[in-house]
Design brief:
With about 150 residues, the chain is mainly α. The chain folds into two domains: about 70 residues; about 45 residues, no CATH class. About 80% of the residues lie in helices and about 0% in strands. It is built from three helices and no strands. The termini are far apart.
């Protein structure tokens, strides 16, 4: 009977060892599977985050590119306006004004036309004459050249 109890205990030990070994294998497999799924989920989330960051970066870069183009366009138009203004000022500064005698004759010739129109209803005075003189200056096409008079 002693031998049979030893056989029995050894058999129980083998069965328990097999059972524990199978259970441990199953537990280890399930743990490894869960870890794999968890790692896969984490890697998917990382990919999604990277994709979102990349799309946001591309969107930001396109917006910045458009803003830069608008700034360049605005600066170019401002530069063009400054150049035109500078050209006009240069032309105004380098203009040769007519002699007083010629200005007086031109003023007298044009004075009658303006006085007849109903645009100017202000009484004649020095202010009016001065304004008319200023307005006539715009009619002259003075060149930056000396006039040649026949003697």
């Amino acid at each position: 009977m002693v031998e049979s109890s030893d056989d029995y205990t050894s058999y129980i030990k083998r069965v328990l060892a097999d059972f524990v070994e199978q259970k441990l294998r199953g537990i280890v497999k399930s743990i490894l599977a869960e870890d794999g799924e968890r790692e896969e989920a984490v890697s998917d989330e990382r990919r999604n985050i990277k994709r979102r960051i990349r799309s946001q970066k591309e969107k930001w870069e396109s917006v910045q590119r458009k803003l830069q183009e608008n700034r360049k366009r605005k600066m170019k138009s401002e530069k063009k306006a400054r150049r035109i203004c500078k050209k006009k000022m240069k032309a105004a500064n380098s203009r040769n004004w007519l002699k007083f005698r010629e200005l007086k004759y031109n003023f007298l010739a044009r004075k009658q036309v303006i006085l007849m129109s109903s645009v100017y209803t202000v009484p004649l005075g020095t202010y009016r004459v001065w304004c008319l003189l200023l307005s006539f200056e715009t009619f002259f096409n003075a060149r930056n050249k000396k006039r040649k008079y026949s003697a």
